[in-house]
Amino acid sequence: MGLIGIFLALVGGFMIIGFIAAICNKPDEETEEPPRVVISQQVPSVFDTFKKKK
Predict the structure, then answer these.
(1) The whole model's pTM is what?
(2) Chain centre to alpha carbon of residue 38
(3) Is 17 helix (H, G, I), strand (E, B) or coil?
């Protein structure tokens, strides 16, 4: 029973530390730029593949 208690205390401690770190390191929403998505190739349609098999 002692081993289970130590395990639960460690898990709870790490969860508390993780929550505090996540709250403190929250970036400002105003300064954050949206990620850029670059599409380099056009993806062929699945229907075009079946049409070419005549």
Answers:
(1) 0.45
(2) 19
(3) helix
